[in-house]
Amino acid sequence: MYGLTPREAEIWFLYRSRCSYKEIAERLYISVNTVKKHMKNIHSKQQSSLNQDLE
User: Fold this and answer.
1) Overall domain count for the chain
2) pLDDT tens digits for 10-37?
3) Are 13 and 28 in contact (CB under 8 A)?
């Protein structure tokens, strides 16, 4: 999906499963800031993919 890394895909799955950033961080033993960074990258990749689809 959108060229996500395995970690981004894992975070996206948890987010789509209605986990909060804090819950994701606790489950994956990472900081909330790291979750936020991954989510920013995910949204960037989604936007890039959508833009390519429109061309």
Assistant:
1) 1
2) 999 999 999 999 999 999 999 999 999 9
3) no
